Amino acid sequence: EWDVKSDILPLPRKKKPSKKNSGSKCVISMHSRTTTTIQDPKNPEHRKTFTFDLAYWSHDGFQKDKDGVFISVDPSSQFASQKDIFHDLGRGILDSAWQGYNATLLAYGQTGSGKSYSMVGFGANKGIIPNVCEELFQAIEKREGNQEYQVTFSMLEIYNEQIRDLLSKTKKPERLKVREDQQLGFYVDGLKSVPCENYAQIERLMEQGTKIRTTASTNMNASSSRSHMVITIQFKQVFLDRDLTKQSSINLVDLAGSERQKSSGSEGDRLREGSRVNLSLTNLGIVISALADAAMGKKVLHIPYRDSVLTKLLQPALGGNSRTTLIAAISPADICYEETLSTLRYAERYGYEYLLSLVALSCKHVSFFQDSCTQWVGGWGRGPGEELPACLLADQSLGQQTGQVTWAHQLEQAREEWQQQYLAIAQERQMMETFPHLLNVNEDPQLTGVLKYFIQAGSCDAGRAASNAIPLLGLGISDKHASFTNLDGKVTVTPHSKCNVVVNGVPITTTTKLQHLDRVILGSSSAYLYIGFPSERGSEDLNRFDYDFFQLERAAVEGVSMDKLGAVSHGDGMADPSVLAVFQDYVKLMPLVAEANQMGEELEKGLRMELKVKNLASSDSRGYDLQKEVMVKVTNQRTQEVWIWSKAKFINRKFLMEELYQRFLEGEDSHVAQEDDPFWDPVEAVHLGSAHVWLQPLAHCMKLEEQVEFLSCDGTEEATLHVHVTPCSPAGQACSEEDVVIDTAELLGKRMDFQIGLVRCLGIKWLKEGAERGVQMGYRMYDLSSTFYTKPVWKIVNPQIEETVQFTALNASQDFLNYLQTNALIVDLWGLQEGCAQLSCSQPDLMVTSEGHVMVDTKKISTTSDQTSELYMKLLKLEQETEQLRNVNRALREENVLLRQALEKVGSPQQGERHPASVSPQGASRAENDRPAPPAASSDRELANALKVFYQSMNTARGRFLRLRHYKPPEDDRMLRPFVYQQSQRLRDVGELLDRSLQRLRSDVARIAKEKRACLLHPQQHRWAKGSPQVCEERT
């Protein structure tokens, strides 16, 4: 009977039911009841298969019956219902309990993947816990009358290594402690354990515990997804005719969310996970790892059960004194791939390695049980060093305090409490049918609708003060926060002073009438659904008004939407998964940022945090959109210091902020040293924006000089940069128009020199907003790993930069030429703050020419062997000699031109004195051929000039087109028509500019081709046309 199982459930995500239809793709497949395959969304060919005891598919293939229960669409569907899961797992737990063995069920997985759905269920779809309890009492009713069955129920929560009794009725529950007894092992001192006679009582206890959990999570500002819930059912069988007792303990554990550190931890944070929020879950993994190593024969000196509260309480289950089952709930969505893969690896290690250790233990314990059970009548003796068998384990939750209390007395006390609860429940139901009220809406669906605040006739205040008719706790809730008035069949809400009240996503400042199903947010994130008078109610589905509905509504009012984030619909109508993930992160972080701002305000930190989307309007060097991600901009309103935190860093900091804030609420000293303050960071350089300088003219040896805009992450203009990119000689002399090439293939394998010069930056907003600020600019060229930074400039809004770097490609490769034609040079603008280190370029791997110029396109020559280094030096020498020959050739060409001009001047007078009729055609032809050809305007040069004009026009059009993306539709529908008209006009202007540029290029090319054709067909006539000599070029 000793067994460990690991089971996988890709469940319907009750938290986000729309995810399947909003752009995500399924990356999980199950081809049998024991295997699970996951596909990498970035590399579809990469798949990994895991094997478990059972694998359940609950993602699709289901429908609702008339009672709201999910059932299979047809017999061929592989959908596993809650009943199927209970049949395979729950019945095994019950069988162990009846036989006197302990049983433990752990639910592990990412937040929102379906752990609570599996354990508790939702609505009509009951989970394993209620099904186990219901089945247990049904079996008890069918048993013989000469046996007594005693069932006690306890429910606790572990948050931040503190234990909270979820059945305690005290207004401020005490923090319970874990104690150790030599016989009992670890137990929770003072934990309330309630005797139960039927399943209905357990249902009431779970509702009561859920209510306390909801209130506590609001008071502590702690999400239920970061806490562990442990339900313990003590089951004792007393055989009256034989004076024999069997006792077992059923532990049902809903673990905290198992998000990976990268997505919700402390990655890149100087304050690493100092919070104890995830200590229990982390230590559980360490314990499992140590046990797995021991099972494989490795030497393990210590298994750290004592390092966390959770592992202390679960030591019997983890150490082999229990039948243990792990349910690993996973999300099938591609945007959760990393978390899902991590969960699968965890479950695989747990199931495979653990079975090895428990099989060895089973023989010892089972044989001991068989030997001991025959002697056990009324009591038993135990030899020194012998272990207590599973069926004799005492009630750990009760400790030794209730040993003298009879079961009949416990039941009598419980019945009195039950009677009071039944009266309270009946009164609450009657009030729900009579009065309008507020229902709480929680991030955890299990905690939604638990709290009800009734708005009776007249006026009632809501707030922190105990005297209020509606006592509210939570971040941003004032003593007198708002007033609700029920008068003449209408309910209104009026905020007090500057208290935050939001109705249907819109902040209000005056008295507002509430309609049935209005959404109300009080303080930072306390969400409530307003239920109107009975006459207003219908058969609405309240489940659609979940926590995400509130946040999406709020985001829409603030102008945040999928369209704004740049979701591009593919041909299949699906949104971009990466944009979908960013949008969901944004919506998820909105209430967290509001809570962090409120904590900072109450702690007088003087900070303001706001959500931003990194790379919202940014593109890479080829113009493609960059990967977007959510970040948090933090501004110190006193010093104007700015920090940019990643999502992971912010979430980690918020954990630490909550701990500090809780100390503040409890009256403890909340002062911490600056280096330990989660609201503070050392100042650092801040990325302000990027500018794109397109390098296509450089591929034709044409100079580019223009002004480009620095655009911030959200597309606003931060500054303007004056930049030039100039092709030049090795000596730094700018190339002339004669060096322009039409076909870039002419540059293949040749040396290319060019200069990048940052001249001036204009109108820097960063410097306008703060006096003690500076800026630097940086860029990276082609294949160079180093970034080139300008010198820092402080306090000057329009600084003169005047910094130029010369680059050299000794043998221009085709890849480099392609790069110049299709890519842009990205120049980044960085904001400096007083006290932060300036950015510098580390250039240990840079290669330079003999002239000191930076070399690019060095893939073919950048090796470490001595032979290649020697060849490289020879190549440099040959290149220098070649350049000298080029200089001599250039000088000779110039001298040749001067000689031609001199000969032309000498020949012109003689030609004027001679009469044309006296010269024979043959003589004229000979004279013509003997004389050097006069200088001419090259058709290639004219074509190059035409191309230069065309490229300049194209750059202008490209800039206008990119700016079109930054214009966002107005929130006011009345302004939508003018906006569409303006956008159409802008598109029309860009189109006209492109048409004019193409038309001019066609015209220039046609003219040049016509002149060249005429020159080739009539060289004599064309040569002396219009009284000015011209030369017909032989090249095409």
Topology:
Elements: E1 4-10, E2 28-29, E3 35-40, E4 43-51, E5 54-55, E6 62-64, E7 70-72, H1 82-99, E8 103-109, H2 115-119, E9 121-122, E10 125-126, H3 128-141, E11 147-159, E12 162-165, E13 177-181, E14 185-189, E15 194-196, H4 199-220, E16 228-239, E17 244-254, H5 261-264, H6 279-295, H7 309-313, H8 315-318, E18 323-330, H9 337-373, H10 407-432, E19 437-441, E20 452-454, E21 458-463, E22 470-471, E23 482-487, E24 490-495, E25 501-503, E26 506-507, E27 512-513, E28 519-522, E29 526-531, H11 547-557, H12 577-602, E30 607-614, E31 629-636, E32 642-646, H13 647-665, E33 686-694, E34 704-711, E35 717-728, E36 752-762, H14 765-769, E37 773-779, E38 788-789, E39 793-794, E40 800-809, H15 814-822, E41 824-833, E42 854-855, H16 866-913, H17 921-930, H18 939-964, H19 976-1017, H20 1019-1023
Parallel strand pairs: 1-5, 1-18, 8-17, 8-18, 21-22, 40-42
Antiparallel strand pairs: 2-3, 3-4, 6-7, 9-10, 11-12, 11-15, 11-16, 13-14, 16-17, 19-20, 19-29, 21-23, 23-24, 24-27, 25-26, 25-28, 28-29, 30-31, 31-32, 33-41, 34-35, 35-36, 36-40, 37-38, 37-39, 37-41
Please report which band the strand proportion falls in: under 5%, 5-15%, 15-25%, 25-35%, 35-45% or over 45%: 15-25%
Continuous helix count? 20
Query: Unreliable segments (pLDDT under 50, ≥5 consecutive)?
Result: 11-22, 261-266, 352-404, 862-868, 910-937, 1022-1036
Separation, N- and C-terminal Cα atoms: 91 Å
Quaternary organisation of the protein chains: single chain
List how many beta strands DSSP finds.
Answer: 42
Percent range of helical residues: 25-40%
**Average of per-residue pLDDT values:** 78
- Sheet with most strands: 9 strands, mixed
Structural class: alpha+beta
Q: Report the C-alpha radius of gyration, rounded.
A: 39 Å
Shape: elongated
GO cellular component, one term: microtubule
Family: Belongs to the TRAFAC class myosin-kinesin ATPase superfamily. Kinesin family.
Membrane topology: Peripheral membrane protein
GO molecular function, one term: ATP binding
